[in-house]
Design a protein that fits this description.
heterodimer, A: mainly alpha, B: 8 helices
Chain lengths: ~325, ~220
């Protein structure tokens, strides 16, 4: 097995595993010192983090197509979860298959590095194709709902997540220090740290609710804590993993923490509309896949296009 | 040889079920770990049997006996018949009501097969609706399950509610759509002495599992 990855990325991964080890020790410590409180959810959360980080690390440490397959599978299980939770019409079963097929094609464009097709395939071609296939069924009742929810699902679960995968394909020239993989690790780490710190600050100091109707746990204090932590970390890590200067990394930190928050609340609104608590039980303590990728659905495309605009202009198309 | 083929089929089923469907199992601990048992589930799709088989470990591969329609599986094509007999290891049952009465040779043969399987600590998989109904609906139960329960009062009968498979692969279709499948396993029931009450109890427990699933979401 050949490991072809920049040293700063390796160190960052090692650092993440270190953080996880500390988190595990803290949960053990809490369970020992507060034996009367139930920490099983926290425990399950940390365990799921170990699993997710290990699988992700393996996928970027292995050779080239491994990470594309990883994200393709992630898109697949996210779309499958979404389509199982939303109401779909029985007559649209074949149309759903076409939507699944779009996952393979979208990641194929990434594999062959066809940037233009990667950008327009789902927003334009699938947008036009899905209603055509649906029209053949001849079922007009609930048509708008069916086509709207299906395409939204494809955008949310496949298109946005595929931006993570394209980061790995970016040429080394834009980020000589750590390459596309460095950008990917930077984005994922910031998004997840933002989630965790918003959660912790919210638990510790949360008082003023931002949008109690959609997500009662979201507080101003939590959001501010997340913004500060994420922006700080974005500035510290930037010279290590990315080509960003001080201003760019500070803006990105701010942008990622705010869009991550919106991505999270976006899925909360979806779940509230469907009348469900968690989107699943696939990740113990976290819920389903949608619960975990919620922030990424917003941060991934935002980060991607920010980076392309400032550092890769004219290098891709 | 058959054993090897069966193991290969079993492993392939497990992988396909996991990748295609992704199981959401509620109360896995209620599945039998040893001894004979009768699994009773609602029937909406060919995938039902594959999903139920995939719930068990590889060591149980020789012990699982789906009860299946004789006409559909054994009298249509020799290939399907061979597969049903030797790989799926089915216990055939005639579901045509008009053809033979309750006490005809056919049914006696079926109950004898079941008794033999139970004596060997095997696990029966049974769909009391008799056939694949329309998606996500529970048809009326036939009385065969009550007879079986009466003959084996100490064998646990485990009600199972399956949700999602009728949409993934409904009757009459051949391309499965990847969608999540919920498997809700209920507490085991035993024969209580009265046919009608037993059937009602069984139907009610499966309905309850369906309601519990809706609440847990």
């Amino acid at each position: 097995m050949e490991i072809n990855i920049a040293t700063p990325v390796l160190y960052t991964l090692a650092g993440i595993f270190g953080l996880l080890a500390i988190a595990t020790m803290i949960t053990f410590g809490l369970a020992l010192s507060h034996w009367d409180t139930d920490y099983s959810e926290l425990n399950a959360r940390v365990k799921s983090w170990w699993m997710m980080v290990t699988i992700f690390s393996l996928s970027i440490l292995l050779k080239h197509p491994a990470s594309i397959i990883f994200f393709m599978f992630l898109s697949f299980i996210a779309l499958r979860e979404y389509l199982s939770l939303i109401p779909t019409r029985f007559s649209d079963r074949r149309v759903l298959l076409w939507a699944y097929l779009a996952i393979i094609l979208q990641y194929f464009w990434i594999y062959i590095g066809w940037y233009g097709m990667f950008l327009i395939f789902i927003p334009i071609y699938m947008f036009l194709l899905l209603p055509v296939r649906m029209l053949f069924n001849g079922e007009t009742e609930g048509f708008l709902n069916a086509i709207g929810t299906l395409h939204w699902g494809l955008m949310l679960n496949v298109y946005t997540i595929s931006h993570l995968s394209y980061l790995v394909m970016l040429p080394q020239s834009g980020n000589p220090i750590a390459g596309g993989t460095g950008l990917l690790v930077y984005l994922l780490l910031l998004t997840e740290i933002n989630d965790i710190s918003q959660y912790i600050f919210g638990k510790l100091f949360g008082r003023y609710k931002i949008i109690p109707k959609v997500s009662p746990n979201k507080t101003v204090e939590g959001l501010l804590g997340g913004v500060l932590t994420t922006t700080g970390l974005a500035i510290v890590l930037a010279p290590w993993l990315t080509p960003f200067d001080f201003i760019h990394s500070a803006c990105l930190g701010l942008l990622l923490s705010l869009t991550g928050f919106i991505g999270d609340v976006n899925i909360s609104a979806l779940k509230r509309d469907l009348g469900i608590k968690d989107s699943g039980t696939i990740l113990p303590g976290h819920g389903g896949i949608l619960d975990r990728i919620d922030s990424l659905t917003f941060t991934a495309p935002i980060f991607f296009h920010f980076t392309i605009y400032f550092y890769y202009q004219g290098q891709l198309l | 040889m058959k054993r090897i083929l069966r193991i290969i089929f079993f492993l392939t089923t497990k992988i396909i079920v996991l990748v295609l469907l992704g199981l959401r199992i509620q109360h896995r601990e209620r599945l039998p770990t040893s001894g004979a048992a009768i699994l009773v589930a609602n029937h909406n799709s060919h995938l039902d049997t594959l999903v139920l088989l995939s719930l068990f470990p590889l060591s149980k591969v020789q012990h699982l006996r789906p009860v299946a329609n004789e006409q559909y599986f054994l009298q249509q094509s020799p290939c399907l018949a061979w597969f049903a007999r030797h790989i799926l290891n089915i216990i055939p049952v005639a579901t045509e009501a008009g053809k033979c009465g309750e006490n005809s040779c056919h049914h006696r043969h079926f109950f004898k097969n079941c008794a033999e399987a139970i004596a060997q600590n095997q696990i029966l998989i049974l769909y009391p609706e008799g056939t694949r109904g329309s998606p996500e609906s529970l048809g009326e139960f036939r009385s065969g399950i009550a007879h079986l329960a009466k003959q084996h009062p100490d064998v646990p009968i485990i009600p199972i509610f399956l949700h999602g498979l009728g949409k993934s692969l409904p009757k009459g279709d051949f391309l499965p759509v990847p969608l999540l499948c919920w498997i809700c396993i209920g507490k085991s029931l035993y024969w209580n002495g009265q046919k009608q009450i037993f059937l009602q109890q069984l139907t009610a427990s499966i309905h309850k599992l369906s309601e519990e699933r809706n609440l847990s979401l």
